[in-house]
Design brief:
By secondary structure, the protein is α/β, with parallel strands linked by helices. The chain has helices at about 1-10, 25-35, 85-100, 185-190, 215-230, 250-255, 335-360; strands spanning about 10-20, 40, 110-115, 120-125, 125-135, 160, 175-180, 200-205, 210, 245, 260-265, 270, 275, 280-285, 285-290, 315, 320, 320-325.
């Protein structure tokens, strides 16, 4: 008990800690500021821009799958030919300045634990905060998913993930296998095929291409599918994974040329490529894993929020096992427009929680 008291004295008290300063974190900070709640925003990245700052240079702003403006400040006049990392990074930096959000970076949060007097203890490389509530907005970029296949460790070529993708020029003259059925895989293939000696596309399931517009009703239906998973405590799927791949002009050209002819996943990897169950094989110099990401929530492990299904059960943004914890940009709020709305919703719930605490405190 003496140790707890000394520990609490060393902590910095704050109403809310926000972890992450991407779309979800900045939206939450904006709403916290408007609500007059004391907070700190901790971001592990070296500069503004969230995960966007790490995107490959050939992903220009015009190719971005979707980027919704942050609350209170539109993103206008962006050059579609500029790298999205530059456009969004500058936008986020201007947003932080305009609303005086004072993000602390680079700060790595190592753990969130139960603190004293019903507070949360947020441990970081830059100090310890004692918070009444927490908004986790850490996204997925820091947890690239690498599937495992027999023989993978024997491959003598290069293996890399979308998180490390440097742009197409690095693949000039190479034979490349791209693994994954999402938007990133398609973008990589369309780029790499222009300079590579050969490309092969491998997916676990046949890709589904979406023709025509994607309206509000379709968006609600897609979000509902993702929401159902997190309500059941299962690991979330991205919203994009249930919407299908947009069938635009570039994708149509890739289908017509054969670049987007898909093969089922291989049976095993060899030192020089991959082999399928039917005995067919492809020789390769590079395997590019465009296999997605998982939620970066390991620092929340001490709170034991995970369900038997492997995910954190969430109602709206609130963790069912702990009403002090809100996950913004997780599951159904992982899209940019979803992150904006979820930031406001999380702050409204936190205000109600803190108001109940004040009413129930002895001093009241």
């Amino acid at each position: 008990m003496v140790r707890d008291a000394a520990q609490a004295a060393a902590d910095v008290d704050v109403d809310v800690v926000v972890i992450g300063a991407g779309q979800a974190g900045l939206s939450s900070a904006y709403h916290l500021t408007r609500a007059g709640l004391g907070h700190v925003v901790l971001d592990h990245a070296p500069r503004p821009g969230g995960a966007w700052q790490f995107r490959w240079p050939s992903l220009t702003y015009g190719k971005v799958h979707g980027m919704h403006a942050l609350p209170g400040m539109e993103l206008t006049g962006a050059d579609p030919l500029r790298p999205s990392s530059e456009v969004v990074g500058e936008y986020f930096a201007a947003y932080e300045d305009r609303f005086d959000l004072r993000v602390r970076r680079p700060v790595d949060v190592s753990a969130v634990r139960e603190g004293v007097d019903g507070r949360l203890r947020v441990e970081s490389a830059d100090g310890v905060w004692s918070a009444r509530a927490l908004i986790n907005a850490t996204g997925t970029w820091d947890r690239p998913f690498w599937p495992r296949y027999p023989g993978q460790e024997t491959f003598r070529g290069r293996q890399l993930h979308t998180a490390d993708y440097p742009g197409p020029r690095a693949f000039a003259g190479a034979r490349v296998i791209v693994v994954g059925g999402g938007t990133s895989a398609v973008q990589h293939l369309l780029e790499v095929s222009e300079v590579a000696a050969a490309t092969t596309w491998v997916t676990r399931r046949p890709p589904v291409f979406r023709d025509g517009s994607f309206g509000e009703a379709e968006g609600r239906a897609a979000v509902a599918l993702v929401d159902d998973r997190v309500r059941r405590g299962l690991p979330p799927q991205s919203v994009v994974s249930v919407t299908g791949l947009p069938l635009n002009e570039a994708v149509r050209a890739g289908l017509d040329s054969g670049v987007l002819d898909r093969r089922p996943v291989f049976d095993r990897i060899t030192p020089t490529g991959a082999v399928w169950a039917d005995g067919s094989r492809v020789e390769a110099d590079v395997i590019l894993w465009a296999t997605g990401f998982r939620a970066a929530v390991d620092h929340l492990a001490p709170l034991r929020l995970r369900e038997p299904g492997g995910g954190i059960r969430v109602e709206g943004t609130r963790a069912v096992r702990d009403e002090r914890i809100h996950l913004v940009g997780y599951g159904p709020s992982a899209s940019t427009i979803g992150a904006n709305r979820a930031g406001g919703a999380a702050v409204r719930e936190i205000r109600r929680l803190l108001a109940r605490e004040r009413v129930g405190s002895p001093a009241a």
